[in-house]
Amino acid sequence: MKIIVERDYELMSRTVANLLLGEMFRNSRVNLAITAGSTPVKMYQYLVNAVKGRPYFENVHYYNFDEIPIKGTTGFGVTMSALNDLYFMPAEIRSENIHVLDETNYRHQDERIAADGGLDAILLGIGEDGHYCGNLPGTTKFEDGTTCVHRDAVPGMAETLAAEVGGDPDRAPEFYVTMGPKSVMQSKRIILFASGPKKAETIRKALFDPVTNDHPSSILRMHPSLTVVLDEAAAEGIKDEFHVKQSM
Questions:
Q1: Residue 129 among the catalytic residues
Q2: In the chain, N or C terminus with fewer CB closer than 10 Å?
Q3: Which residues form a coiled coil (predicted)?
């Protein structure tokens, strides 16, 4: 495990973008699974500027690792809609390089990725409850591959799904799909990043507390190639537990 602490959100975002670009600069096919959400907003701005209009990145293929369908619609769900807005459309990524995971094909996701050569890297955020992808506490086990999680899996899930679709319970789905822990751990590299004081405690638990399904992201430190990128605020909880090199 390598831990990188940057001074602030902007520097952290630039570092993560550079790590992804390092994966992308290959002559062979590169398979990346990337995250939506608020944490990567600045990172995607850097990445768009680096990738847009450069045909030598056409070897890079992208996979979303979870999806929340929006009830009553036929288009993309929550995750793909966000990735389109944040990255795919601004960077003008070709549609043939985007491999959508949704409720119609999740049963074959792991086999599809394996047939494509496996994931070279997966970029993950982390929730305050320790979740990554759609692996919330109590919803999946470490041995699970890509799976479907129903809204009655844990208390409060119906409300969580409603919040994800703008707070309208009529648009909330009965389930979502996600790459499970087993699927994520099969990636050749994992990049985990977090920003802000609200993430400090969950980062400490993920990296230094016991490995447990109660804090799903704790399994990630068992990966042989895990890179964690934090800003100073998110690293506050680990500064006394692990010596990390801080950028100046």
A1: yes
A2: C
A3: none
